[in-house]
Protein 1
Amino acid sequence: MKKIVFFFLMTILIASCHQEELSSVPDEPEGKQPVFDLSEEEVLQGCIYVKLKEEPAGEVRVRSIGNTVTTGVKVLDRAAFSLKIERMERTFPYAGKFEERTRKEGLHLWYNVWFSKETSATRAATEVAFLDGIETAVPVPKIVSRATPETAWSLYGVRTGEWLFNDPDLSRQWYLDNPGTESWQKKGADIRLFDVWKQYNGNPAVIVAVVDGGINQEHPDLQDNLWTNPDEIPGNGMDDDGNGYVDDIHGYNFVDDNATLVPHRHGTHVAGTIGATNNNGTGISSIAGGDGTSGSGVRLMSCQILKSLISIGGEDPFIAAAIKYGADNGAVISQNSWGYAATRAGRNASSYINPVHKEAIDYFIKYAGCDNKGEQLDGSPMKGGIVLFASGNANTSDPRIAAPADYEKVVAVAAIEADYRKASYSNYGTYTDISAPGGSLDGDGRIWSTTTERSNNYEYLAGTSMACPLVSGVAALVIEKYGVGKKGFTPEALKEILYQSAYDLDEYNPRYAGQLGHGCVDAAAALEIDVSNLHPFILKSNQITDNMLIFSVSSSMSGNGKLILYNGIGSKVLDLHLKLEAASLHAVDITKLSAGYYTLVYQAKGMEIREKFIKY
């Protein structure tokens, strides 16, 4: 959903959620660095990310002797005294049994460089970036969760009926099955889950890494579905399984750099939506929380990057390590309801993803469920991983207010309300891949889930933060059907299933046509889709009113292709050579074409597709 093609130019448009992102510029000559369009308030002071061109020859340790500061990295010693460098550590810690692939991907070359806060972080990054032997140097962006900060407490929407599961709060979860009985609801504006539960309701082979605040391990609705590290002995102060982390039983706290998870309101809410225990007579039902029998349900891995209250930004440089941890420890879904804390409109027409986060995301996609060679492990339900991000809550399509959701390799999730309409706060844009219910801001139609406080540890929240785990949960069910007990299921196939099964939202949101992804996630359709007969080409709308021709291709037609447009009398009016990614939305600017009837011809891999459309 991310690539945009303008007449003879391909450009990547991006957007995100609640907060904004940074800007990138085209590659510059060797020695030049990307412009990081961030204010000092939007980045962590006293620390930058630095990637070396070569591995240091000896020990990396900061020493101060008189007026000399040395780091063990010769290329940095020139700046060590002027910046008052205090310490350095690998951004991606030594990975034990996963060190081989960590080094293969060059992640061992990244360092967090701590220095005096008397020097601004952006200035420090600029100075270091131009040193010989430095591949890149960038500030550390602050992050925030993608939920709205206030909570509504009225217990609306309670209804009676026959339910598959006996969880008492299921009747409040309209987003699983919307009855349309309230004034703020429309029947069917949900994820269409109930029929799916009869056969697919979560499998422990599917592990979801919740990169967020810490999951409340004591919550009675979450205890049974927490991921447990099978080879780690709790509390012995040793790294028993050789993964580089000590005593990581249910995950790891990357804020405090220890295995003590601090229960967090936002992270616990997100986790409950995906995998709270079903049919246990307690609290809520979740998408993939099992059927109440012992051992059923997905497993929730807590990768803690937030510790403070819901709206306060994280300032920790180990976020990338948290994403990587999921891949190294069995997760195949990385759930991320956070984004950069930037708030200003961008100067450029493109966004920026911090290169450290980009490499961590790429690593998860490549190595989740796999061995050091990238081959699928026995018992893993997928060859590679899928990374999902909430798009943000700023009600904008500004490409700068997106990251990391705008990155083309992740699944960017927008939010709708209980009447099919885009949530008032939700970001939107052609970078968006899919939508899901996220709740409204006016007190009605929010998302009810587990938490760490309030009403018996359950509460209503709204935001793209709440929409994103709905898609992660449905993804877990799709993996359960097509991947568990089988070999060869891939993230690309998963995305195609999610996107092609999504139901259309454009008719309810004409102003945002083509900017809410492929539509709203639909669990029933996703579990019924014929994977052997996925559509190779989908034209998003055959009636074009906003001058953007939006379409997607499946893996069978991805890569190099040719797009030709003919007008109503058969004359060729556009001829483009494109390189397209499967399952992403692509857009062609047809502003210069006059109103009328057209035929689109797309050719790739020996196949040809013809579609007709009207431009108004």
Note: DSSP finds ten helices and 27 strands in the chain.
Protein 2
Amino acid sequence: MTRAARLTALAALCLVTVVLLLPAAISVSTGGALPGFFGEFGRWLWPAVGVMVLVAIGLALWERLRGHETSNRSAALSRVEARVKALLSASLAAQTQIKLGVLRQPKLAVRVDGEEISTTDLADVYDRLGHSMVLVGPVGSGRSTLLRELCLTLVERARNDPEAPIPVVVDLATWRAYGTRKPTEFTAWLLREMNRRYGISRSAGTIWLRRERIAVLIDGLDEVPRVDRAHCESELAPFASVVCSTGPIENLPSVCVEPLSRGQVLEYIASVSPRLDSLEAALTPEIWERLDSPLALNLLALTHLDKQVDTIGTDFVGSFVVTRLSGQRGAGPTIRALKFLARLGRPDLGAPVHMPHRRAWLPLLPTRPLWLLFVRAVPAAYAGGVCAVAFMTGLRLGLWPALTFVVAASSLLVLVNKLPHVFHPPGRAHGIITATLGFLAGVFGGLLVGLVGLWLGGIGTPWPYVVAYVFVVVASFFLALGFIPGEAPMPWAVLIAAAPAIAMIWTGPYVVLAGMGVGFSAGVAGGIFAAAVGRVWRTVLPAQQERMRLGRPWWIQPAVPVLGAVGLLGGIGALGSWGTALGVALGLLVTPTASRDYVWPFDALAEVAAEGVTRPLSLGELSFRRKALLHLAQDRLLLTRVDGEYRFAHVALRDHLASCDPTALLRATRR
């Protein structure tokens, strides 16, 4: 209530000052009339404005320094608790409890490195080590579960003690996605994660981190690439309270997760009676040797429950995956899709309608879809776009402007082909259907571009003659600056701008403007298309490029001007104005600027276009029924869902699927 009153007072002060007092004070100072309702208080307007500003500054500083310590803290604790409980309930251990009807998992014990005594009270160890440690254990040992349970304990402490820090669990698996190596990058990433996961604002997070009011519990260090591991450890050192890792970290005390004992395993099996009564008899010495972690125990129990056999292999993960997929009709596409998702190297698969960055998929694709994209779809789409724009231009502006467009667009083909010459198919991949679809997509896009260009060209029709004349000259100058390479484009830009300045003495500016609209629209579209294709190509691995033979079919390059000439049919019967043709050429000067990666907003549009270009490439690995696939994998306990996002139930499952042979796995599921 106190914070709400403070924020209300701040908003009211700002509103009264800006809307009422300040305009009245300015009016009086400039000789204007004072509103009558101020009466004798008119001479106190400026002092009142000053007082109001000082009070508002004081309230803003109060909110900045103390406003996050009450309601924000309580809300953050509630969100942390809710999300950590969701993570625990979605874990493979929790799903196993539901599947088997077991009440609890075996209680894990930890031991401080160098000590002999083990304990099940991790919070006590955390206090004894000064609230800083690394939780060490192999994959599947239960480190993440212990970390989340510790977080819930610290949440209760923070609720009862206003001075206790707020615990947050962050997953380093996404840290490398930001990629830069700036010294403040980890801080920025941490603030983003706290805001995204727990709703902690950047300002509140900054203050709390500076005052050590947040305890950062870090999971997923093993997901960071080895080349970045040392850098990541040095970055997280000033913030981390607890880190989960498979090995020790320098300057942090190590707490080792103890393996499960035989007694704990037998007690667990007995708690599920009678569903796992036959499991104990099936445990061979080889199985006992590997049955030392909660992951192994859960996978073994679920596999035995499904198979109902007396003999079990020692590959717990592989056996589990086979049994979970064995009842699936047509398991082949599912296995291939899960392998594809696992190889992305990310635990977060995104919501059903949002998958990871599509260009990250390209290194996982075979050669054929890449060849179909770059050899068939891209040139055909470009040719279709040129044909459609030429037809629209000829139909509305005449033959000469359309011919100018075809010649200029054909010469700009080099922007699209800024690629190695990878235009020969591996095997007998003809791709006629792909080329046809690409051509039709280009025609549709070209019609839209042509309509937009004609609309842009007609905007200047109501302008006065002088305004239109000056606009054409100035626009031509700036378009030429972006078109001409080198360090001294100014003289050439002046010469290019002089061409319409002289031509418009005879033609007038309006016909040039009409052509510039079409040229500018087509130039922007062509430049963005070229930039998108270049971005996609740079993602392709060199090994994939080497598998594509050099050379190209002879008809690829001539197809663009030939199909563009077909579009000239729209201009038959009306030659049009040569001033309009000049405008088309001037508008096309924007193409190199639009194709650059660093010019806003073309860079953002090229990113969107690149995602659209790569979208069809995933169809060979992921079906259109992507949502059904994710639901199926979740039902089979291979995927889990938290906060609307899918992820593999355990990193061991993901790694196994990423390295498996889909054909061999399919045979195993059929057996």
Note: Residues 177-183, 350-355, 418-429 have pLDDT under 50 and may be disordered.
Protein 3
Amino acid sequence: MQTNKNKPQEIYQNLMSEIEQLEFISNQKNEDEEIEEVRQNAVESLIVIKKTIEENIIALEKNSEWDTFVIAFYGETGAGKSTIIETLRILMNEPKKVSTRAKFSRSQTPLENLESDLQKSQDAEQEITNELMTLEEELENLQKSWIEEAKKQENFQLLGQEKAFDGLKNMFLFLFNRIEELKEAQALLPQVEQQAEEVDRKTKEVEIKYSEKKENQSKIEGMENKKTDLLQDLEKYSDGQIIGDGSSDFTQEVGEYLFEVDGKKFEILDLPGILGNEKVVQTAIDEGVEKAHVVFYVSKHPNPPQKGDEKSLGAIEKISQELSKHSEIYFLYNKPISSPQALKESLINEEDKKSLILVDDTLSAEFPDVYVKHKNVGAYPAFVTLGNFSDEKKLKSKNKFIEKFSDTKKVLELSGIQEFCDWLTTDLVDNAKNKIKQSNIKKVTAVLTETSDVVLSLSQNFSELFEKNHAQLELANGQLDQIEKSFNQKIDNAINRAKRKFETNVRQKLYDKIENEIESKKLKWEFEQAAKREISANQKLGETNSDEFEQEVKNVVLQFNKYLQENIGKASGKSNKINFSSTDVNEFDNSKAIVKAGVGLLASIGGVIVGIVTIPEGGVGVPILVVSIAGMAASLIKGLNDFRLAIFPTKANKRKWVDANLKMVSKNNDSEMKKQSEKTKKEAAKYIMGLKKQLEKSTNPIKKLAESYKSAFAQLLELRNQIENGEI
């Protein structure tokens, strides 16, 4: 590639000149409005591609002057990327880490003092509880004794009163206070009253002790709340906040950490894992990889990344897509070591060495121009030994390593972290400016390659898509026909059910009134009210039928739209993203927005096609059956005949009167319902026909898209070839 002979600025300027002359699509308009809309959308979307390429080239030109060298830690979910970075932050005194560690130290003393005071209050709580138990037991015994004496006194009193009125003799004895039971009741009364006073006194003692207990509990609660706040502060300032807790995709955004060691400035990026739920984190991964100049592929296994199969991409294919544009790639084996016994003089054993040779061979073949070599660390022992923690599990682990090795430096040496840190701050970051330039130049062709590949895939697959959609169109039309037929049948069924329900409910209600001897004049009024209610109730039945119709139509359209959308996704190849490198965050604060504009290109084109087939807001617009009839209830029951009731108001005549008038009103109601149903059926048929036309139109613009993208691919390919041949 002869472009390396030129200065980066000259390459950018020449390339920009060529891009400005690109004309992706003919400006000739199309008479068909839908096709013209899609053509215009394609024009605008491809202009976004052109504009984004231009902005990326401008950003790359600016990047070559940067002082900051960007290193990304990329790789498998759970490989320990964040653990390595957290350890490096401590070792290299990253400013944010220095600040949080100082805050951690300042939070420990007040917590220790509070825990001492809390323990005293908890001891007092136990003492109060014991005293309260004793008082409650005494109160219970007093109450028991008092109740027994009170019952005894009450029994003597009752017996004496009964005896006093049992005969003349006892009455005289009562008058002279000679009834023994009453005398005994009188003698027991002072004792009962005294016991009641003792119960009352003891109750107050219990209440006072409860108040004391409540006050102490409130004090403890306040101290515990304060302790919780202090513990939260301590936890907030503990090391390892960026490290996963075992849940999937803990890291969902790119962590950025700036360092300056011996006057050398560089930045380390902590990227989300690539083998988790990548739909959630893919944008963050893309942006981080695009920004980096050197990438470490981190793995907890000393084996080459796995290949995929026909169903899904493997790790090797994913990193090939992501990292092929970079100028330096390293494999970083983070050996899982969780106990002091596993940390030995030799971090890497013979079996590991053999596997890592295979790793180097595999990645050198995959990235012949950019893969350098592997590195080894065992980050966890170093991290847990260096870190400040509030978590008991981590503290226990830390103490185990310190007890075994005594010297922190020994742990750093055996884990390989110190050696890796020294190498990173010297050899790796040396000549950083030149490495930045090489990386940026490589990204120039990567931008065009990625874009042209996606455009070609769209051109090819949209051609196939046009044929595939025809079968789905026929299926959707058949489903709509069936929905219309079913809807009409439901309307007929609804009318029949409504008629039967109307007659049954009104007759039953009026017959019940007749049995209860209702007056003739009031019977007529009751008839009118019952009929009105039943007629109005038909509205809900109609709403249900219309709601079902609307939902079924929506389901067909949504399924058809989903089919188109899925095929548009397939038309974009295995990836539905266009990745644009934009690394100059100083010049372009909206760099993420530029990336998202490119990423959303295919989705926006698909939205134009699918958007042609829509359900109007607020429903399909089919009139609800019998809604207007509810408003006509009064007119439907006019002319009720009451002649027989006036002359012979017997129960039998009242029933005959109800039956005769019910037949008349039911007939009127049935006639109106049928008129409304025919109107509804016509509106539904009209709507279905219009919807079919929309479905048919939705497939027409796809061929135009295929032609547009074919033209765009040819021009992008020519531009890329010019760069590769050194013509720009």
Note: Residues 550 and 618 are 10 Å apart (CA to CA).
Protein 4
Amino acid sequence: MRKDQNTEGEKPADDAFRHQRRNVYALYVIALLLLFSLFGWFLKEQREQEIASAEAQSDARASLIGEWVESIFSQTYHVLVSVADLQNMPDVVSATQMSRMLSDRHRYAPPVQRVGLLDSQGIMIASSGDNHYQGADFSHQDFYKVLNDPDYPMEDIVTPLYWSSEEQTYSLIHALRLTDSSGAFAGMASARVASQAFADMVNQMQIRQGESIALVDATLTLIARNPGDERTQTGGQVEGATIQRVLDNGQTPWSDVLWSSLDQRERIFWIQRVGNYPIWVVVGMNLDEVLAGWRQRAGITIGIFIVITLLGAWGVRHYLKRIRLAQLLQHRLKELDQARTQAQTGEARLRTLINSIQDLIIVFDQNNQITYTHALDEGMLLKGKDSLLGKHYNEVIPAGLSKRLDTVFEQVRQHRQAVTLEYQLRVPRGEYFFQAVVSPLVHPDGHFSGTLLVARDITEAKRSEAELNIAAAAFQAHLGIIIADAEGKILKANPMFTQITGYSEAEVIGRDAKMFNSNRHDSGFYRRLWRSVKQHGRWEGEVWNQRKNGDIFPEWVVISSIRNADQQLTHYVATVADISERKAAEQEIHQLAFYDSVTGLANRRLFMDRLGAALKEVHRHRSYGALLLIGIDHFKQVNDVFGHPIGDRLLQGVARLLHQQLRESDTLARLGGDEFAILIQSLDTDAAKAAQLAELIAHKLMVAIRRTSSLIEHSVSVTASIGITLLDYSTNEQNEYLQQADMALFQAKARGRDTLCFF
């Protein structure tokens, strides 16, 4: 019999153990899945980071190659502009003399093989060198047809790679449209740019293992490639429908993993167009080389996952054994507790019921004498419970309250209805406010047998009422105030808030505070705001909101959370102050302090701050930057002849064109008068290459400044002189570099202006 009882008792324990075992196995499998997902996510993120790093390196290389290619076409453009001056030469000039003049024009532009001058019919007037092409008809060439088209928006054009059967070489044609005084088409100047110049430039780049750099034109014809072999010579055709679609759509920069038809490898390709020219830089990196380290880490990670899986299986098995023993012991203890609990249940239920009554209870008989009292805290009674029994209330309470009770008790006796009254009474615990309900005690036969008084402490409620009265007075303050519930719905708004926002109180009640959102702040800003309110109960700061009329304005907002005695959130209170006038004053002071009033560029003070920061970066990265000081040639004469408004317009045009030629990271400033300063950071770690890049940038800026003459509507030839000094990691101060650039600028002006000079 006893054995059967034990067996029946252990059956629920077995069922519970099987259920818990299933839960443990399920948790173990879920944990393994989560761990597998975490490791998979980690490996995926690592792989994406490796590819992103390779793409960033490719972007940097493509940008550098693009700068070099643009510098070559900047030189050819400079040559073409100078050739354009020959279109108005007298007719007495012989073809030989014209050919010699053309040869002089590109003597200092090594990439240019030959320069020619064509008339409006496409006939070659003269060409450099041996004047071999004089009289040749080029009207059938595509570049002539494009430039002769009045709807073509550009003044120059660069052709794809071109094969010259006569000279047995590849080149690109750079042509410039020529116009007469009326703006009609008058011919063009053309320059043949050697493809070898691009090959030499690409081959100068030091490439890593598995990396390739190539230049291709719009027809996917190979201009240059590093590394090169028999399959990658100039003029070769690159196969790839995907790359052709990218070039046709103008989708650059573009990056993806593709199979290379040149070296039969899977590569990460980065394609980037060079300016507006029909040339694209294609940087490829061997995917196996890029992901070599990642594959090694992936193997280690998989091994760690296998070890964790085995250790977890052993831990689960050990844990289940301990659970089985614990459940059997718990079953035995539970049987003992059940017997003890049943004995205590009756007594505990009665005690709990009595102690759960929080109010003060007093029972009076027909003669208004106390027969029973209940109070959890005897300090709320005038005397002890035992001393109150049998006494009339007149013997216990003050005379004033006693007279009020006489009236109430008589009313309850006559009308047999409950009466509520409030009174203030000093008890041993202090001065308290009470709300009492006096009810008649009536037998089933209708006989009146006494009175029941149930009193509740309302001291805190009275204090809260007083505080609410004070808060109501403060609600009419000079600051805007809104009160919202725990869900953020507006419950109340004071007059000052409606005056600031333009909304009436009826228009905002019941709506969310998001209605004032100006979209000036992102979602992260509001997440941080409400996180601070939840953690610290308060947030204070500047917020841009929107008025009813659509105006966006700044305001200083203080948000506080209100909690009850149980620390439950009940309300939010926000005070608002309009700071529009203060912000406008701060903005005007900042603009006057750091920016030039004519051009809107940084002034000397802001430029010196950024120069100091740039020198710290140069010291940190051990690289070279450049400081360019630009002076507009004969600017004083422009002011004297045409007036200061024209001079200001000229300065604004120069500032706009210079800004278009610079990167976002470069700093352009006007130091005063006709002097502009340009700060270029991180050109190269090699001084010679940094100087070469600085010179190319300066030439590009000089070409841009020459175009400024068309902006002031006067026949003025605008040129500039540039002084350059390199920023290195020496101990020179800011003013020393500025003095060096100023000395170089002075030397450039001394050499005849419209030139540049290094310190």
Note: The mean pLDDT is 81.
